[in-house]
Write a structure and sequence with these properties.
Layout (H helix, E strand, L loop, with lengths): L1 H48 L4 H11 L5 H12 L4 H12 L2 H16 L4 H47 L3 H7 L2 H25 L16
């Protein structure tokens, strides 16, 4: 029974580590998609300057765009090939990304396609410059304070690495099998989880708010 309890704590710890890795994986995916937007905007601008239509420019992103966004624009291309309206297909792109940059990008293209605009490329270029500057600022902030976050992660992980090492010693093993030892492990695990989540919440940069959330298809 005592051995089972110890393994239970280890299982919870492993699940906690999997949870952390999953969060970090999602953050990396979001960062890749965010960093792809300057290239996406530049590709669309180049395509429009060469005489391609807005629909063709967006469909081409499914093959020549950054890998992080190709699947979303592949679905746009498939939607257009099925005969869906441009507004519906573009709105689906907005919904898949659920991102303020994508919202602005799609709104510019929607009004250009519906009403025509000589300033479409100019607006897209200004949006590209703004996005690049914003991403550069965020990257600099994350770099400067990243060592603090990494130190905190190490501080949260170190006691549990030490616990695994001490567990190989018989005296320590018996101590952690006692009621006080179990209570100490449980409280330590809970406090570590709370501290980690709190630390990540503080270190999280505020996201830009979505201003254009109204469906394009309803306009």
């Amino acid at each position: 029974m005592k051995e089972l309890t110890t393994w239970l704590f280890l299982t919870v710890f492993v699940l906690f580590m999997i949870f952390i890795l999953d969060i970090n994986s999602k953050k990396r995916k979001e960062l890749k998609r965010a960093n792809a937007w300057p290239e996406v905007l530049d590709l669309v601008i180049s395509s429009l300057q060469s005489g391609a239509s807005i629909t063709e420019s967006l469909a081409d992103l499914s093959t020549i765009g950054p890998l992080a966004i190709r699947s979303e624009f592949s679905e746009f291309k498939e939607s257009m090939e099925k005969g869906d309206s441009f507004e519906l297909a573009l709105n689906q792109v907005k919904e898949r990304f659920a991102d303020p940059i994508c919202d602005q990008f799609c709104e510019v293209l929607f009004f250009a396609a519906k009403f025509g605009s000589r300033n479409t490329i100019k607006v897209l270029r200004e949006l590209s410059e703004y996005v690049a500057a914003d991403l550069s600022t965020r990257a600099e902030i994350n770099t400067r304070f990243g060592w603090v976050k990494n130190s905190a992660n190490l501080a949260a992980l170190a006691p549990w690495v030490l616990f695994l090492i001490l567990r190989s010693q018989e005296n320590a093993k018996l101590a952690y099998q006692q009621s006080f030892g179990k209570a100490l492990l449980l409280s330590g695990l809970i406090l570590t989880l709370i501290a980690y989540l709190w630390m990540n919440q503080i270190a999280k940069l505020p996201k830009a708010k979505r201003l254009f959330t109204v469906s394009i298809a309803d306009k």
